Structures are given as structure tokens and as C-alpha cells.
Amino acid sequence: MREEDKMCVLCIDELAIKANLFYNYGRDTVRGVEDDGISRSLTPASTAAVIMARGLKSNWKQPLGYVFTSTTYSVVKTKDLLEKFIIALDSVDLNTIALVTDMGSNFMELSKLLGVTKEKPVFTLGNKEIFYVFDPPHLVKAVRNNMLLNSFCWDDKKTCWQYIVDFYNRDKNLTNRCAPRLTNAHIAPGKFEKMRVKYATQVLSATVAGSLHTYIELKGLPEDATGTMEFVAFFDKLFDIFNSSKLYPCKQYAKPFSGQPFQIEFLQNALEFLQKLKVINAREQMNCMEDFDQLLLNLSEFREVSVASLEIEEAANKLSFAVNNCDYHTQPLPEQNAFKYVCGYLIHKCLQAHKCDVCTQFATVNQQLDDSNLFVHYKAYSNEYSLFGGLKTPHESFYNYIYLLEKVFFSNIEDKFVQPRVGYSLYLSCKEIVGFTHPCTSFPYDYLLQLFVRLRLFYVIKNSNRNFKNTSKKNRKICILMGL
Ligand SMILES: [Zn+2]
User: Which Pfam families match (predicted)?
Assistant: First the structure.
């Protein structure tokens, strides 16, 4: 690689993602939380950011990593991450010259933290001087958005979007159009259309500037439209000069920047012009925050609970100590009902894993209808032959055992939720602390523990995802609440 091929630009871009957790069985990990590759937090991720390096003078690009963050992710952490990337690039002899981001509020904050100003768009990180560049395609969209709502004024001139609308309305009905590319999406872009760069660049283009000029000359538009025309022509050139991609383009300002006199002169004039610009009739302070490429990404759907793929090692240890100091009856009655229903499900699954007379007897021993098992009773598909139909009502010791497992699960979940092998470590905690003695020596204790942990994790994730749907971004929390 030649020295000049090693010069690169670091870019970061983000897109909004739908807050959603899911449990990855294969890796036994909860996905969907804030994760910057260094640590994971209990906050659901709402943004996915990609960091990419790309050659400044040659055409190569390399994604370096991606980060899942939330609105609360600190800029200090972003800065630390950046430093890591710059040092990593340096270690393979790649020379970072500039950083490119859009003008999202977090990046504005980052630029401030890095000490970047209009006068001095440079910061030092990892012993390097690096230029901070705001993404031109994003800037051009921001200008267009401002033009839609407000007027830009300078000297005795101003812009007025209505002239572009008037021109479009006449032009669109002609057989031979001046600006055949323009559509309604250019003139009155919707929320998603506003994110497309081309709808902005094709309006702020030489074609539209030339068309407006023609209409003014032919008295199709008033003299007052001159400001709008000049503004459009200026931004067409400004965008071109920052967006050169071909060596020999047909447009003069789209030539690669090489410091030619016409280029320097244009940029110097541009600086003066931009400093003169004022925004009036600001009904709304526009910034670029609405450009969160709002892609609602369904990370994954939660699949049905199944134990088959859980990679938990076989435990041969017999659980010998009995359950004590734990009474599920302390729960409120409606909860006791739901709780018993779940216990019935668990023992039913255990019977599928191993069945004998002793186990069947244990699983159905409780045939008394009381306030705490009404739900099991009513929920039974058919209770013609027994009070609880096919649903199981196991021995009291089983309820207490599961209740104790619940307590252990909830006292551990917060610490372990974002850790690797979440299911396995919760299983170990449950196994370590509690146990009960089943009358059958072949009772599948381990299977029960694994199933219980799965089921509980499933509920936490399901409740959290439900919470994300109904709450604003800031208030989204992972719901670690006891109770079904
Ligand atoms: Zn058995």
C-alpha cells in the first residue's frame, strides 16, 4: 500500500432500531440491550451505530465495528470508543485524517466535547490531529428542510420555497419538462422521503436553478424569485465540491478537489456567503435530529420455549436437602392461582421427560379445589373426569420448591441478565441454593431447573418487550418484576 492509500476517514452512522429483547439459545445470551463491545447494560438499545474506515485517496472501506446504544449512552464513552478505533487503525499503519458524522444531537455533543468549533474543526485524539467533518449529504437535507419551513436571507435577497412549488406545478404538466426528475416527493417530502438524499440534491440542483432562471427571464416568475434561484445554484456547487466521486465529471465543481484557484475561490466565497445567511420566519427551529434513518428493525421474534437446544451440562448430583422456610401461600391469591398453573405446567413437562406411577401420583395428588387453584380448574380444557382435567396439581412440596426457585431467580436476574451464559448461571444459582426431594429417584431435577429458568427468562423478556411498546424511549425499562 502506498502512503497516500493509507490515509483514511473514520465515519459513524446510526439508525434507529425497535427496542426488543430476545434470548439467543445457542449462545445463552440476551440480545437487544445496550452493548458497546466492552460492556452491556440493563438498558434496551434504541440505536445501532456502525463505525467504518474508508480510504481518503483510494477506494477501500472496512467496517470496524457496530455498537448498540440507547438515548442515555454517554458521549464520553463514544469518545473513548473513537480513541480505541483510531489507535487500532494506527497500529496497522492506517492514518486517520478525518471523522465524519451527521449532525444528530449526540454527535453535536461529541463535537463539543472534542473541542471542535467552526473556526477550528480539528481535535486531537490518540496523539493525532483529526478533522471533524459533518456529513455533506446530511447537511444538504438540513438546508432543504430549513428552506421548506423558513426563508434564508442575505443582503437584500431571500429564499421562498413557494417559487419552487410554483415552477414545479407549471413544469409538471408540460410534455417537455425543464426539470423532469422532480416529483411531489421533492416538493412536499413526507417523513421518510425527507431522509432520502436525492430528494434534496435534485431540488438544490443546477437544473432547478437553471429552470428558475428561465422562468424569471420569461416573466413566468417574479424578479423576487432571483434569491431562491441563486441560493439553489450555490448549494448545487457546494454539494458538488464536497461530493466528488469521478475523476472527469461533466460538472466543473464535481471535480476532485486539488486546490485549483476556482475551487479555492468558490470555497472562500462560500464561507462569506454562509456567514451572511440568516433564517427568518422560523416557525420551528430545525435541526437534523429528524434524520434518524428510521428503520424499524425487527431484531428477531422470540421463539417458543424449547429445552432441546439448551446446552447445559448434565448434573448427576442428587438434591438431598428439603425445602424449608418458604411458603408460596404468602403470595396474593390471584398470583397464587397463576403460580399454581405454571407449576402444573412444569410438572406436566417433567412427566413427559420421565413417567412412572410414583411420578404420576406426585403430579396429581392435590385434588382439592380451593381459592388458590381455581384458575387451574377453570383453565382445564376438560374437567369432566377430574376437577383439573389434564392439568396437573402436584404435591405441596413442589409448589414450595418452585416458589423458592422464583426467589432465587429474581435475586440473581439483575446481575446476570446481560452477562454471557445467562441461562446457565441462573441454573447454577438455582441448583446451588435450593432443592427438594421427590419420592421417585428418577425424577428429572435438572430438566426441571433448565425448564424453569427458560420459562422465567421468557417472561422477563416478554414483559420487557411489552413495556417498550407502550412507553417513550426514555422510560423504557427491562421489567424484572416478580409475578406472572
Ligand atoms: Zn418417576
Answer: TNP-like_GBD, TNP-like_RNaseH_N
User: How many angstroms separate the alpha carbon of residue 430 from the centre of ligand 1?
Assistant: 22
For the entire predicted model, the pTM comes to 0.68
Could you read off the pLDDT of 270-328 as tens digits, one per residue?
A: 989 998 888 887 554 443 333 322 222 222 222 222 333 333 223 222 222 334 445 66
Is residue 403 located within the same domain as residue 450?
Answer: yes
Question: What is the per-residue pLDDT across 150-162, written as a single tens digit (0 to 9) for each?
Answer: 999 999 999 999 9
Same domain for 167 and 90?
Answer: no
Q: Ligand 1 centroid vs 364 CA: distance in angstroms? A: 13
Residues 279 and 151 in one domain: yes
Ligand 1 center–CA 353 separation, angstroms? 10
Q: What does the CA dihedral 327, 328, 329, 332 come to, rounded to 10 degrees?
A: 140
**Closest by alpha carbon to 449, among 394, 397, 408, 393?**
408
> H or E element: which one contains 34?
strand 33-35
Buried b (16+ CB within 10 A) or exposed e, 379-403: ebeebeeeebeebbbbbebbbbbbb
What DSSP line would sit under 376-395, residue for residue? HHHH-S--SSSTTTTS----
